User: Fold these one by one.
Assistant:
Number 1:
Amino acid sequence: MIATLTQSTGGTLTNRRTAWQQLSGRLVRNEDGRPMTSGELIEAAGLNWQVSKEKLQLASNGREVRGAFGLVRQDTGNVLSVVGSDYQPLQNSKAFSFLDSLLMDGIMKYEAALTIKGGQCLALIARLPSVDEIAPGDMQQRYLLLTNWHGGGSIGITPISFRVWCANQTTLVMEAGRRASCKLKHCGDLDAKLTMARRALARIDRAFTQYTDDARRLVVGHTREQAADYIRELYPVADNATERVRRATERRIAQVREAWLSPAQRADGVRGTWWGLYNAVTEAIDHARPARQSRNVTERLENRFVATTTGEGAEFKTRAFELAIAMSA
């Protein structure tokens, strides 16, 4: 379930949307036009249900499970996670309240709220004010993915660069491939957590700057042979690979080839560059239809959201970006 505050506008070459925009439901805004706090957005989105910690019993004989408790979503009765006796649940309405002062400072603005996996995770999407231009007219918007996994014990802050032209998204890394994300524990003084969050945002800002500088290095031409080597390196096929593996790899490469011919990769200043080639890979991961997927639409979109922002899809895009940097040097 998701509520969207604003939609990305301007400069689009396609009508594609990010995984979180595909999950979008009703549009919610404050009547006075001011930015919504996290609590107001969560309330307007209908996500302000409570989580309680309850004792667990064995279904076979009703015996209590010592030291184990279930985090129960009160409106549905579903068990979201199993925790220990010391764990204290963090309610959705309060999960991100310590960050709300950043709204007043103009540091960020919430755009969306959603829950995934039946409510196991509450996520907010926040947009930062800076916009980065990679090639002429090719704009990247800065976003933060804020997550609270019930049972996880910490708030996650993950930076994501969003390409307006094709709705591709890249989860940023810092030096030596280390994720530019951070985690803040539930417990502790709110002011202390805000201080840690501001320090994390400073590191994240540097990661955005580094990503932009690196991305601009990719706005150089490649030869047909270099492009072929790049794809073979990303999608290798072992000599003893089964026919099934070969077909799956060929399918992925075909999706990249199709994305490489899309308007966003054929635009002036991007066509024939490493930047366009890398974005063909990200576009295939973010938007191409997988070989196997759930019949449940919501589950399908949630799986893609997790994969493309923090899961295996995000990791593959990181590898593709670093390989493009290395091969284009």
Number 2:
Amino acid sequence: MTLARLLLAWLLVAIWFYVATILAEMVAALPLAPPLRWKVVEAGVLTLFASLWFDSLGSGQWWLVFLLVGVLATAPVQLVSSAHAPRRGLVFVRLELVELVRYLGAGALLAWRLS
């Protein structure tokens, strides 16, 4: 895998994470935007993980891999942030679904660029 290919995939995922966060804020009607630098770091880590997956382990069932990674990365944060919400269950489900769509979208971009 070339460095240029990895950097392009990283850029695409970082842009997707930024756009998805803006869309999620509109859908969830809650502020969700951490600083942009953390989106860039998150996109970089996910791109390196995807590179490992697509270059050595396989390319099948990529959606399941990214769904599981999304749950591992976002569920603990959502549980803590929604613990004090009045309708905790509904807030958690809504925010978790938005985050999982974000990870599945990133996985689709990475499957397209890296496999």
Number 3:
Amino acid sequence: MDCKECKKLIPAFITDSLNYKRLVSYLDHVDKCMDCKEELTIQILISEGMLRLEEGNAFDLQDEITKKMQAAKKKIKIHKILINVRVTLELFALVAIGVLIVFFLL
């Protein structure tokens, strides 16, 4: 992912609407690119911070960024777990079918 694409995806990241593949690519880029991380920080400050300050609520920018990044990484981890469960179940089903075929053929 390049910086131009990454910066276009910031609003989708903030609203948690990136699909798995884009989210993985996005986080990988932001972890390595200080310019894009800075742009993310600015946009979070504008979108989240201004709203909270207008409501009179406290806002900790660094904490907000950390929470969003942790939530995104958790989403990726859960997705990977679900993929592993699915693959395991598919393999189990194939073995069960194989056993049934052998059982009925003998």
